[in-house]
Amino acid sequence: MYDLIVIGGGPAGLAAACAAWERGLKRILIVERDRELGGILNQCIHNGFGLHHFQEELTGPEYAGRFVELLSQTGVEVRTDTMVLEVTPGKRVCMVGKSTGYREEDAKAIVLAMGCRERTRGAIAIPGTRPAGVFTAGAAQRYVNIEGWLPGRRVVILGSGDIGLIMARRLTLEGAKVLACVEVMPYSGGLNRNIVQCLEDYGIPLYLSHTVTDIRGRNRVEGVTVSQVDEHRRPIPGTEMDFDCDTLLLSVGLIPENELTRQAGIQTDRRTNGAVVYENMETSIPGVFACGNVCHVHDLVDFVTAESTRAGYAAADFVLGGPTEGQALAVENGPGITYTVPQRIRPGNIQKNAEIFFRVNRVCGKSRILVTSGEKTIARFSRTHLAPGEMEHIVIPGTLLANASGSITVSVEEAAT
User: Which residue, 36, 190, 333, 368, could crosslink 337 as a Cys pair with Cβ 3.0–4.6 Å?
Assistant: First the structure.
């Protein structure tokens, strides 16, 4: 029996395994379905990683390489080319690997770190024919950065998520012409720095409140039609623009990879599509933890590392010290908030501070973030700007949580102009 099995060898799984080893666990197994460790970082060859965690700017492979090197200094066992088929509530992991065949392994604790996947064309139901040349942005990124293929010469990008913005720059540098980036919402879904560095610096137009309403072409994409949308995201007749292109990239959102989570009977949150977790990233099954993009979609890998380190420490504490007890406060989202993580906090388990991550559902100027319990406000935080594309977090002293009862609510109050 293993002390800990970590499912996923990307940045979340690597950080969790290193933290658990540091805490004192010795029989740790990482299971990774790809041929090598590193996850999505291996195809993210642009820089901008590591500014928070390593205090220097790294590329994705460099960031992953740092953790692979740390892992090599431990006794953690790694199985690559191995697919996990099932996780049982009793913490048994069923897997099949190229070199090991079918195996069932038991663990005292499990960390779920499977990451996320991209939303596809079928999920958003774009009208039109179904020719070649429609890719998710991540698939195109793999083609260019790992396989060495250019997916197209004249490109339109639907969605302004960070991967799509980064691919606009990457394809331009490879010689393709990116005609436009089209976003159905009235605001971008990506980081502001990526809008500036990947679109504005290269003269690529961003059409907000627009969407693709037709795809033309029989064998290969020959063009797309883009239309403006109203406040209900319905196309406005007479606003159509035609773009002659051979490629359409989709950057329309990421979905946590949670089939194993649901199969195990772990409670999930419909707001994040990830597991409901406590302050130490423990799920509704004691001894099973979730971290990184499988829990909620992050915009910076540094935040994934910090969260996963916390999960690794907690998994080790569970194995070495037993289950965490205590009454839990429910964390609820109030006006202006899309989701909060964690969804539950046990005040008795907070040594100093509790961190809450959240996203807002609209662009806000100068605002206050309020944390309330019933009619009582227990904490206030000021912000000059809030946007849905950027994850926010607040730190609440544990002493303030002692004044709460039943639940706390996080909400946004925008200053009057």
Answer: 333
